[in-house]
From TrEMBL:
Chain positions recorded as (2S)-2-hydroxy-3-oxobutyl phosphate binding sites: E94, T95, R136
Enzyme type, top EC level: transferase
Residues at the catalytic site: H97 (proton donor)
EC number: 2.5.1.78
Catalytic reaction(s) noted: (2S)-2-hydroxy-3-oxobutyl phosphate + 5-amino-6-(D-ribitylamino)uracil = 6,7-dimethyl-8-(1-D-ribityl)lumazine + phosphate + 2 H2O + H(+)
Protein name listed in UniProt: 6,7-dimethyl-8-ribityllumazine synthase
InterPro entries membership: LS, LS/RS, LS/RS_sf
Pathway: Cofactor biosynthesis; riboflavin biosynthesis; riboflavin from 2-hydroxy-3-oxobutyl phosphate and 5-amino-6-(D-ribitylamino)uracil: step 1/2
Keyword entries, A-Z: Riboflavin biosynthesis, Transferase
A GO BP entry: riboflavin biosynthetic process
GO molecular function, one term: 6,7-dimethyl-8-ribityllumazine synthase activity
Length: 160
């Protein structure tokens, strides 16, 4: 798989838009909290590194990834917020819950993004086991939170 061949945090930071006056919603699911906290740290530090002000990063938690869609909508409907970054970790179990959750979140945050015309970033790590999730939260495949924040900044730079 292509993603196995590169570090997900190895984004191109050239020509990113100025985000010093941009306001971000950072939404973090509490299931697998140790891992989502690491994703959140990566996203937060990336926004700060590129000029966002701490007071312009509104951090909220939701119980599980399924709740990311509504959480994103509540943030996106605030006209002050320019972009929402959704972070969660869904690990495959014995049942198909992971499929249902992941599809629901993908559809839900897509709808929110299109309804409010602002970036709502899909930072959902979906893996077969916990190790694979850690590999994507500061491990051998980078930090998906960093990539999600970089994606939000990139999307804010798109002009019509
Ligand atoms: N939420 C996650 O963010 N990651 C998970 O891996 C996860 N696994 C779940 C497994 C089961 C069987 C259930 C019922 C829920 C799980 N959730 C998980 C929580 C889900 O996103 C949501 O918070 C709850 O279903 C309540 O709506």
């Amino acid at each position: 798989m292509a993603s196995a061949l590169k570090n997900l945090s190895d984004y191109n930071s050239d020509n990113l838009v100025d985000i010093t006056e941009k306001k971000f919603g950072l939404l973090v699911a509490e299931w697998n909290k140790a891992i989502t906290d690491t994703l959140c740290k990566g996203a937060y530090e990336t926004l700060i590194k590129h000029g966002a002000k701490p007071e312009n990063i509104i951090r909220n938690t939701v119980p599980g990834s399924f709740e990311l869609s509504l959480g994103a909508q509540l943030l996106a409907q605030n006209s002050d917020i320019d972009a929402v970054i959704c972070l969660g970790v869904v690990i495959k179990g014995e049942t198909k819950h992971d499929d249902y959750i992941c599809h629901a979140v993908a559809q839900g945050i897509t709808q929110v993004s299109l309804k409010y015309n602002k970036p709502v970033i899909f930072g959902l790590v979906t893996t077969n086991n916990e190790q694979q999730a850690w590999d994507r939260a500061g491990g051998k495949h980078g930090n998906k939170g960093v990539e999600a924040a970089a994606t939000a900044i990139h999307m804010l730079g798109i002009s019509a």
